[in-house]
Amino acid sequence: MKQLISKAVFIISILVYLMSNLHAQNQKQLWGLAFGGQNDAGIIFKTDGSGNNEMVKYDFADPGGNPYGSLMRASNGNLYGMTYYGGANNVGSLFQYDPRTWSFTIKYDFDLLDGRYPQGSLMQASDGMLYGMATEGGNSTSNDNGVIFKFNPQTDTYTKLFDFDGATSGSVPYGALMQASDGMLYGMTSLGGVNDMGVLFQFNPVNNTFAKKVDFDGTPKGQNPYGSLMQATDGKLYGMTRFGGLNGYGVIFKFDPQNNNFTNMLDFDMVTNGGLPEGSLVQATDGKFYGLTKEGGLHSVGILFQFNSTNSAMIDKFDFDDSPNGSAPDGSLIQAYDGNLYGMTNMGGAVGGPVDQGIIFQFNPTTSTFTKKLDFNGTNGRNPQYTNLIEIPVTIATSPVGLINCVGSSLSVSFTIEGAYDAGNVFTAQLSDATGSFASPITIGSISSAFVGSINAVIPANTTPGTAYRIRVVGSNPVVTGSDNGSNITINALPNVNTTVSGATITVNQAGATYQWLNCNTGNTVIPGETHQSYTPTANGSYAVIVTMNGNGCSATSNCVTIANVGLDELETKDHFAVYPNPAADNITISLPEKATIEIRTIEGQIVKTVDYEGKTLEISLSGLTSGVYIISAKTNNAIVTKTLIKH
Questions:
Q1: Which of 216, 295, 308, 646 fits 313 for a cystine, CB–CB 3.0-4.6 Å?
Q2: Cα–Cα distance, 128 to 287 (Å, whole number)
Q3: Contact of 577 with 595, CB cutoff 8 Å
Q4: What residues does 237 pair with on adjacent strands?
C-alpha cells in the first residue's frame, strides 16, 4: 500500500512539474495602442496573456502621437505601428518598438505627397516587406485620397506604391491590407469608387498593379467599410461595412477571390444584431466568426456577436452596457493562445471613475462568459480606436554552449529573448541532471536584468561526470522557462590531485596527465622544467602541482605541501628505525639507537603529531587520528628516515 501511495505521489509531482513547465514555456503577452497617457498623446501598453497587469511601455510625446489602428509584430521580433499626428511634418509617423529592449524609434515621417494621417495598421507580406495605407495624402492630382505604401524593415526604406484617385480606385482607406492564399494583397477604402461608397481592391506586390474588384453600392452590398478583410478556412474573404445594406446599418459580406463573386451574408438591424461595425471579423477555432458592432443591441451601445457562415445565423453573445462593461467597441477581436477572445471598447467603463475611457475585456466562446479586465483611466490609456490587441510570445532561447566541460569550470551562458521582461527580473542559468532532465534543476549562475545578455556560470564541484547534461535559462518577471542549449553536454571529472610525500619527494597520485609544479612560497609561480609526476625540491618550503588530464583537458591544482627535510641525509638503513605494530590500532612503539624528533604526517604533508625521542623504547598513542595511511619520520641531528604507517 505504501508503495502504491509513493508511486502516486511521484506521478502527481511529475505531472505538476510538466504542467507548470508547459505553462511557463507558453507565456504570452497582449500588446495594444490607445489614446491618453502621461502626455495625452497616446501609449503603447502590454498586459499578461490573460489581459491582466497592464503596463504602459511607451508614452507618445506632445505634439504628435494619437495612434489609430493596431500594432503588428514583424518577423524580426519588433512591433510596428503608425500615429495620426506627430513626426517631422505633424501628419503622422511610422514607428518601431522593440519589446526586448524597450526602445522606440520613428522610422518614417509621413508627408502630403507620400501619404499622411494614417488610421489603419501595417501587415507583413511573404516578401518580408511591411505594407500599409495612409488615409490621406498622395499626388496633388488625386485630391488627397490616400496611398498604398511598403516599408522595408531591414533598410528602413519607405516606398509609395499607389495613389488612390477617388472616383475610380477609391479614397480614404482605413483598416489594413491582408495577403490571401493567392499571394495578392486585398483591402478596402471607405469612400470613392463609382458610388463614392468605397471599393474592395486587389494589389499585386510583385508588379505593383492595382485592380478594383467591387464597388460598394449601399444596398445590397453595403457601404463605407472601416475595417479589414480576413480569409477564412473556406478560402473566401469576409468583411463588414459600417453603413448600407437593407437597414442602412451595415452588412457582413463574403468575397471569393477566385471568381470575384460578392455575397451579402447578413444585414445588421441595430436591434437584434447590432449595427455600425467599424472593425473586422475573426474566425475562432470553433469555426465561427466573431465581431463587434459599435451601436445597437439591448443597451444601444454595441454588441459582441457570433456569426455562422454556413447558414448566416447571427447570435448576440453579449450586450455592452456603457457602465461598468464599456460601450462603442469600434475595433476587432483576437483569439489568444488560451482560446479566449480579447478586445477593447472605445468608451464606457467603471462607475464612479473617469467616464467614457473604455475597457479591455475577455470573452470565453465556449462558456459565453464576459470578463472585464481593465478600466482605462486616461493615465493608463483611453478610448482605443479602430484597433485590436495583438498577442506576442514571451520566450527565452538558450544559446549553444561548449559541449565539453569540467567539474568546477566556468562558462558563459548566452541567451536571446522575445517579449518584454519587467524591472526586477532575474535570468537564471540552470543545469539538468545527468540524463538531461530538469525535474530538479541546479542553479549555476544568474543575472539581474530585463534584457538579453549572458550569464557567468560555474559547474558545481559536486557534479557527477556524465555525457547527457543540458543547460537552460529561466526568467522570473514574468516567469518563463527557456529552451535548453540544444545539445548534450559532457561534464568530465577533475584529476586526482592528492599527493604523497616520501622523504623530500612529493608525488601526485594522478597518472596519465601533464604536470607543472609550483612554488607556493612565491605566489604559486611556475618552477621551470618541473613537469613530472614527482618533484624533489632543492629547498625547504611549500609546493603544489597543476595536473591536466591528457584525455579531456580538465585541470586542477593540488594543495600546497610543506617540505622541511631538504639537505638531511637519510639513514643508511631503515632497519635502525623500528615501528611496531604496523598496522596499528591504538598505540605504536618506536625504537631507534639515538635521540630524534618523531613526526607523524598525513599523506598531504600535514604534521598531526610530534614527539621527542630520548634514545629509549617509546610508546606513542594514535588516539585522535583517523584510519588511513600516514608518514612517520625520525629526524636526528644529521639524518632522517621515514616509514609508512597504517592506522586501523
A1: 308
A2: 29
A3: no
A4: 231, 255
Which is nearest to 152 in space by CA: 177, 125, 176, 134?
Answer: 125
**Which residues touch 471 (CB under 8 Å, ≥6 apart)?**
398, 401, 413, 429, 430, 431, 432, 444, 457, 484, 485, 489
Q: Judge contact between 131 and 121, C-beta under 8 A.
A: no
Closest CA to 121 of 178, 65, 164: 178
28-43 pLDDT per residue, tens: 999 999 999 999 999 9
Tell me the CATH architecture of domain 395-492.
Sandwich (2.60)
For residues 358 and 340, the answer to whether their CB atoms sit within 8 Å is no
- Fold match, 395-492 / 569-647: yes
What number is the average pLDDT over the span 531-557?
Answer: 92
Contact 454, 401 (CB under 8 A): no
Residue 15: strand, helix, or coil = helix
| CB of 492 closer than 8 Å to CB of 406 | yes
The C-alpha atoms of residue 238 and residue 251 are separated, in whole angstroms, by 11
SS3 of residue 21 by DSSP: helix
User: Which pLDDT tens digit goes with each residue over 598-615?
Assistant: 999 887 678 899 999 988
Q: What is the mean pLDDT of the chain?
A: 92
Q: Which residue has the higher pLDDT, 243 or 501?
A: 243
Q: Residue range 425-431: average pLDDT?
A: 98
Domain topology for 569-647: Immunoglobulin-like (2.60.40)
Residue 198 has a pLDDT of: 98
Domain coordinates of the chain in residue numbers?
A: 395-492, 499-563, 569-647
CA distances from 194 to 168, 199, 248, 451, 476 (A): 6, 9, 19, 53, 58
